[in-house]
Each structure stands twice: as C-alpha cells, then as structure tokens.
Amino acid sequence: MTVAVVRFPGSLDHESAARAVRQAGGEPVEAWHADASLPPDTEAVVIPGGFSYGDHLRPGAIASRSAVMADVARHAERGGRVLGICNGFQVLCEAGLLPGALRTNAALSFVCRQVELEISDRSTQWTGGERGPERLSIPVKNHDGAWFGDPDRARVMLRYVDDPLGSTDRVAGVANDGGNVLGLMPHPEEACDPLLGSTDGRHLFAGLLGRAA
Amino acid sequence: MSRVAVTVMPRQGVLDPQGQAVHGALERLGFSGVSDVRVGKRIEIEIDAPDPVEAAEEMCDRLLANALIEDYSVEPLS
C-alpha cells in the first residue's frame, strides 16, 4: 500500500514516520508541500511532526493552506485514511479536517516524555478495534500540544491518563466523524522499536494500512 | 498604499499561559494592582486595496486568526 508522507519546510519526523510505515508493510513515498497533488496511487497519508514553516503565526496554520493540502482534503473526503502526528495534528485542525485547535501547553514548557494513553473509542481499525489494546504507551514532544475544543462535538479517540499539557478533558487525539482522519499529539512513530521502550505505536500504523498489528 | 494594524488576542475563556507568566513576573517586580495580563500579537500590513480594513478582515478570517481560540480587530493606520 502506497502511503504519502507529506513534507513541509520545517518537517522533522518524516523519516521516522516513513520507517514506521515501511515496518508496518506499507510503501512510503514523499509528498512535497508545493505539489499540486499527492503521488499517484496514494492510498493513505501521514502528516508527520516537526515545525512546519517555523511554527510562524500559529503551529500548522501556514502548512494547512499549502498546495498539497487541497489534495489531502480530497483524499479524506473520499474516505481515505489520514494520520496526523503532532505538528501534523495541528495542520489537520487548522485545515478544518479535524475539530478543535492546539494551543500552548499550560505549563508554557516543551514537554518531552513517555505518556500513557487511554483508547476512548475502540470501535475503529486505528487501534485494532475491540480486540486491540485498551491503553498505549507513546512519547509526546511538543510546546503547543494542548487540545482545545468541545469533546462532546468531537470524536475523541485517545486521552492522556495523566495529562501533562493541559488539554480540554485530557484529549490526546481526535478523529473526524467518518473515523478515517486521525490526529494525535503523541508520536507513535517513536514507539515502534523495542529499543525505544514501547512498540505500541505499531497499532496506529497498522490501522493506517487497514489491518491489525 | 494604506497601512492597517491587525490585533489578534486569545479569546476570553481560553487559557493564556503566556499572559499568566507575564502577570507573575510583573508581580515579582513589585507592580501591584495588576489583575489580569493577556498576550496577543499585532500584525501591520501595507496594502493597496479599495477597502483595506475589509481586506484585512478577510485575511483574518482566512489565515491570521483562528476563530476557535482567537479574536481579532483591525485598525487603519493611514
């Protein structure tokens, strides 16, 4: 399965995201922010972490208006899977593909640590459905990662067991109504190798490819 | 050519940790009586348009402010 990994000026985690896609059995291909369309045969999309456009104005704001994002929106409208990680989550919220916004962490500090996540919605393939795990251990690393929004009007997928960021209702990740677009602040691509202490991130990359880990 | 100033502020009710940090620092410097501090941003735009304020408002709606968490105001400068 061909998975487009979208890269903006200032993206950082595109290589680790591509590695995680390959490990899950997908074929990662790079999509550049200025491209008018996603690569041919794109079946799923990852928007990786980093500091697109230097986080200027608001994190994800400028990237969300870049050329390639129009085709990401079309892919999402067709029901194609999109996974936004950290800055990619910010981009998807700014693009209006996911509800809410990400604001500066309550403690005004960059938070870099392993976090425990509750899977709030176990009905989707993203985490392996009802047979999948109930919790995930995945690291966060961000400065502007506190989700702000109305949890009653969002499909909340993941919550921090102990929220270090100050998000509304401990929300760590949300999906669109259709469940095909998922954004989260924690970094599943940094939890795919036993050397990094957890392989729980593999569930989300398997979900991206539409299969169980 | 006209100049307009756009002010973007965190909306009331949205936590403003930057404002809180500045508030704390002002109190530590001995400024008493400060009850609230909010930090936003100012964007100055030079523009050639029939109605520069209206143009800047459209820029705010489409890019400069996120209506979910921010309010904006536009002021003509010249």
Any descriptors?
heterodimer, A: 213 residues, alpha/beta, Rossmann fold, nine-stranded mixed β-sheet, two-stranded antiparallel sheet, 11 strands, 19% helix, globular, B: 78 residues, alpha+beta, Mth169, Chain: A, three-stranded antiparallel β-sheet, 2 helices, 32% helix, 29% strand, elongated
Explain what this protein looks like in three dimensions:
The complex is a heterodimer of chains A (213) and B (78). Chain A is of the alpha/beta class and 213 residues long. Chain A has a single domain, classed as Rossmann fold (3-Layer(aba) Sandwich). Chain A is 19% helix and 28% strand. Chain A contains five helices and eleven strands. In chain A, the strands form two sheets. In chain A, strands 2-1-3-4-11-10-9-6-7 form a nine-stranded mixed beta sheet, sandwiched between helices. A two-stranded antiparallel ribbon of chain A has the order 5-8. The longest helix of chain A has 11 residues, at 14-24. The model of chain A has no long low-confidence stretch (mean pLDDT 97). Chain B is α+β, with helices and mostly antiparallel strands. Chain B has one domain: 2-Layer Sandwich (Mth169, Chain: A). Classes of the chains: A alpha/beta (213), B alpha+beta (78). The interface between A and B is medium-sized, with 18 and 13 residues.
